[in-house]
Amino acid sequence: MKSKLTYVSQIGLCVKDLDTAIAGMEKVFGRQPDRLGETPKRKRFYKGKEAEFGAKLAFYNFANIEIELMQPIYGESDWTHYLESGREGLHHFRFSVDDFRGVVNEMEDKGIPVLMEGTSVKSDELKWALFDTERLIKFPVEIFNEFEFKDGALSKEK
Which of 120, 20, 11, 19 shows the shortest CA–CA distance to 67? Predict the structure, then answer.
């Protein structure tokens, strides 16, 4: 079976202090974030249950890869678990997909459950799901349905 996880669109980094991470990005790359914000208070799930959690976010666009910096600010999530385990840095690779439900079903058929999921900071139509792949490859894999929607219409453009 051919994988639907072929287009890496984001590298996510979990950080303890977003301001310090932004200062580091400025020093290394000479850039400020392209976007700053916080996760919106929308319906989310963690380990299969509805949950309230959030983070401060910074986004940098580098060619076709977006770098996302996340600092958890409230609630229990994989982000807080990650930092509490003594780690900081690479958290996930995100793949943009054109069949969100199909990828979720395929991963679940492989015994890989969704760990966290919610809607995007960009739009309620855009969804993300983070899979529990850390035991297999040492980091979670995330999917994002941005190829399903473009300007509110179903799209297959990549």
Answer: 11
